[in-house]
Amino acid sequence: MSEQALRLGTRRSKLAMAQSGQVADAVSRLTGRPVELVEITTYGDTSREHLARIGGTGVFVTALRDALLRGEVDFAVHSLKDLPTAQPAELALAAVPVREDPRDVIVARDALKFTDLPRGARVGTGSPRRMAQLNAYARGHGLDIETVPIRGNVDSRIGYVRSGELDAVVLAAAGLNRIGRIDEVTDFLSVDTVLPAPGQGALAIECRAGNTAQDAELVAALAGLDDPFTRVAVTAERSLLAALEAGCSAPVGALADLLQADRQIVKEMRLRGVVGTPDGRTLVQLSTTGPVPETHDQAMALGRELAAEMLAKGAAGLMGERAQ
């Protein structure tokens, strides 16, 4: 490939810049070409409206994809959990690198664990998925919490705790890891307590789908960052989300684990899914285990099968407005 700098489109948030910077370094090592970050402001970054009202986290993706299609950038990095489940034909999901920690975490006052929060504790999150599962766990374990909807970047969310406005906030471990603030976590939530969002902790590297020789060359080069196990896992999770006809902001959690028979040999994959009402009074939570998918179609089928079981148990009625 030539020495001309590759242009990487990124949101301007601290987290987006951190994860894009890490990808830029990896791509530069892989291709021998310099990579420059091109900052793109999205409507989701500037709007004060609640995310669900302006189209969910998909609004962050649209501006980056538009810049790609206009040729303003050569590739883009997304948090994979923000990607709509339908992949545009003109864009290629060129790489899904090794996944970071998929868990949710608590940042609470006085270094408290979730189960040690005082009665009536105010817990901030902008995610109906987190609300549903935290409220369900609290109800089942005699805890008394109030989930409070919030928006904003990591600084502003943790600021609610530091100022005393909230007792705790829920964030993604991966994001805090990437910006070097994981030491502020007071409790890691087990995936048995709160299933993460489909694709949480994973990044998506997207570029144009090879209409020119340069595009095809970049698709091939970026494939060097792809982790096949992460890709099949997130494909199954996102297939579940799509089959439930749920959008990025729906109260759906999903996680595909690779199960090891002995220390190194991966034998099976377990896919777990949950959907619930934000108050946590009703949850549908199921899992399935099978051979590790070897193809995209097999991973998709695993997600669809579990979604069908969840729909049969009443999942559709728990998601509020279905995705259009």
Structure commentary:
The protein has 324 residues and is of the alpha/beta class. It has helices spanning 14-31, 43-46, 58-69, 128-140, 154-162, 173-178, 213-222, 228-243, 296-312; strands spanning 6-10, 35-39, 75-79, 91-95, 104-108, 121-124, 145-148, 168-172, 187-188, 203-208, 252-260, 266-276, 283-291. The chain is built from 9 helices and 13 strands. The strands form 3 sheets. The chain has a 5-stranded mixed beta sheet with strand order 2-1-3-10-4, sandwiched between helices. Strands 7-6-8-5-9 form a 5-stranded mixed beta sheet, with helices on both faces. α8 runs parallel beside α9. It is globular and about 60 Å long.
Question: Which features does this protein show?
Answer:
single chain, 324 residues, alpha/beta, 5-stranded mixed sheet, 23% strand, globular
Task: Provide a quick synopsis of the model.
By secondary structure, this protein is of the alpha/beta class. Helix content is 32%, strand content 23%.
Poorly predicted regions: 44-48, 50-56
Class by alpha and beta content:
alpha/beta
Total of DSSP H or I helical runs spanning 4+ residues? 9
What is the 3D shape? globular
Q: State the end-to-end CA separation.
A: 41 Å
Q: Strand-and-helix sequence, N→C? A: EHEHHEEEEHEHEHEEHHEEEH
Main beta sheet strand tally, sense and closure:
5 strands, mixed
| Widest sheet: strand ordering | 2-1-3-10-4
Helix content: 25-40%
The portion of residues forming beta strands comes to: 15-25%
Number of strands: 13
What average pLDDT do the residues reach?
A: 89
Q: What is the rounded Rg? A: 20 Å
